[in-house]
Amino acid sequence: MSVPTLTQSPNAFQQPRKSRPMLWIVLVSIIGVLLFAALVGASAFFALHTFFQQTDQPVPVAGNYYLALMTQDYAKAYADLDSQATINGQQVDEQTFINMAKAADAQRGTVLGYSIMGDGSGSSFTMSVQRGGQSYQVHLQLKLEGNAWKIISADSM
Q: Given this model, what pLDDT does residue 9 score?
């Protein structure tokens, strides 16, 4: 008489998998925070982008001008100038303006930051500009041309 043999599958003695709810909570929380941060960042970017594209107010025009100088987009900065604008008392066309901006960057360093001083209700602004390790003031004059504000003079780059 033969003895029956019993065989068990190799998985028979494995413990059932434990659920790790804490791991899932942490992962979902991290993903949620990252998505929220991305949405807030995108909203802030588009709000600032829209603000600086406004030409019906003088403050955004002055800000856009220096933002363009910070990124060395001289053609964009020139677009904020009136066709008869003067820099340091010299009337500038686009090429002259670009040459002056490049020379200022080479001599003093690129624009690292700026702030607009004043309440922004008028057409004159004092800008505090940071280049390299120094800060200096620039006086801007703007005028309304049709529906758009344009810079008509600046006493420095």
A: 58
State whether residue 15 is helix, strand or coil: coil
> Max Cα separation, the chain?
118
Same domain flag for 27 and 94: no
38 and 62, same domain (yes or no): no
**85 is in which domain, residue-wise?**
57-154
Could you read off the pLDDT of 94-113 as tens digits, one per residue?
999 999 999 999 999 999 99
What is the model's pLDDT at position 52?
Answer: 53
Tell me, yes or no, whether 68 and 121 share the same domain.
Answer: yes
H helices of the chain, in order, are 21-53, 58-70, 74-79, 94-108
State the Cα–Cα distance between residues 141 and 152, nearest whole angstrom. Answer: 6
Cα–chain-centroid distance for residue 45?
7
